[in-house]
Q: What sequence folds into this?
């Protein structure tokens, strides 16, 4: 298969990134998708793929490496892209093993490991809630003696709010560590900072933020994950100081962590105590929970397609030019639903631009030129979703989508 075609290997253990694959095809790049066997018949754009390969769940890094290198005997992959958070480390390992351009293991950790990203951010002078490694017990005792409870015990490598425990007293931490056993070093202990949580989704080209959109969550994602409720987020007023501070902070922090090119989803908290923004975490990927759809409706920018464009333009040694975009406001309302296919047709405001189709979920996105109108609709609809659709279940230990 020595046809000199440009090829990208995309890895995803979840069904996502379809627009990335479509953009590759639109630009004449042959994409191969490596996913799990259970997703073989998923909603993939087969017309955009050169090949779809599968692997069984639970394969070791060495087994996947052998599989990919076997695939590469007959086709030359120019880039490797992990479409999902949980495949980032594997993709970084494969790039280093095969000497393919892109993030290596150390840089990927800065956007995957919560301890690594906090350490780098603090060393670069950014505000971060006080934290400590969960390794040395004297360090932990000293930390708890000087940093008031409550604290959050966070898995270093999980996405979203998965696996986070709120710790209110010292004895509770020791019990949790006993339960974790040898896994405890894979956690970080952090001060719980009450406040409003925001996310900034951006495009990075040659260490410069060339596009960014700031949004504010309703309930903090951790609260929705662990206590249930309706997940909401809405565009921040672009005329506000919050928008200015968030986009300026993000523009300095992401390059400081080492990001060269791609897309990022960063989260920041505006503390109730002092009104300042603190860095929480950042990932080198498109945000989940239909955030890409939210950004697309607020700005016209499809982050999945732009991510593919960045990879391909760099492969071709071409400059990346950010897309034209508009500046409207969007908000999303999403919850776990009691029925498999909840009917949201009773919600009929003209501002509704997208109804989210996902098994056992109710969701929609609204758009307006006025931030206050988006705020009004999101607040009203979230209360109605809670009344009409909301189901609850224990927070999963592993991601489900």
A:
């Amino acid at each position: 298969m020595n046809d000199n075609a440009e090829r990208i290997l995309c890895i995803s253990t979840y069904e996502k990134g379809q627009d990335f694959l479509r953009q590759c095809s639109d630009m004449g790049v042959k994409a191969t998708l490596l996913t799990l066997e259970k997703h073989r018949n998923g909603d993939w754009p087969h017309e955009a793929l050169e090949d779809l390969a599968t692997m069984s769940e639970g394969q070791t890094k060495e087994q996947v490496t052998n599989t990919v290198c076997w695939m590469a005997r007959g086709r030359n992959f120019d880039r490797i892209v992990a479409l999902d958070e949980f495949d980032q480390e594997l993709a970084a390992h494969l790039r280093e093993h095969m000497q393919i351009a892109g993030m290596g293991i150390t840089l990927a950790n800065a956007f995957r490991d919560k301890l690594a990203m906090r350490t780098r951010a603090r060393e670069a002078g950014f505000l971060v809630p006080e934290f400590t490694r969960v390794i040395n017990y004297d360090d932990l005792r000293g930390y708890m003696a000087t940093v008031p409870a409550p604290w959050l015990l966070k898995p270093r490598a999980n996405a979203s709010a998965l696996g986070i425990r709120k710790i209110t007293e010292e004895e509770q931490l020791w019990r949790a560590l006993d339960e974790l056993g040898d896994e405890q070093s894979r956690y970080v202990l952090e001060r719980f900072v009450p406040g409003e949580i925001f996310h900034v989704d951006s495009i990075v080209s040659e260490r410069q933020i060339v596009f960014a959109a700031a949004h504010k969550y309703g309930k903090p994602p951790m609260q929705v994950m662990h206590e249930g409720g309706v997940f909401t987020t809405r565009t921040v007023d672009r005329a506000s100081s919050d928008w200015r501070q968030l986009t300026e902070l993000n523009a300095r922090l992401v390059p400081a962590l080492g990001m060269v090119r791609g897309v990022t989803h960063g989260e920041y908290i505006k503390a109730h105590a002092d009104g300042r923004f603190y860095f929480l975490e950042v990932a080198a990927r498109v945000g989940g929970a239909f955030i890409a759809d939210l950004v697309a409706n607020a700005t016209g920018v499809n982050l999945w397609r732009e991510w593919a464009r960045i990879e391909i333009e760099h492969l071709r040694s071409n400059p990346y030019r950010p897309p034209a975009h508009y500046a409207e406001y969007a908000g999303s309302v999403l919850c776990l639903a009691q029925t498999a296919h909840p009917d949201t047709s009773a919600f009929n405001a003209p501002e509704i631009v997208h109804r989210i189709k996902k098994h056992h979920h109710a969701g929609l996105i609204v758009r307006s030129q006025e931030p206050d109108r988006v705020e009004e609709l999101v607040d009203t609809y979230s209360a109605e979703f809670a009344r009409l659709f909301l189901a609850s279940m224990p927070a999963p230990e592993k991601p489900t989508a």
Notes: The CA atoms of residues 160 and 221 lie 7 Å apart.
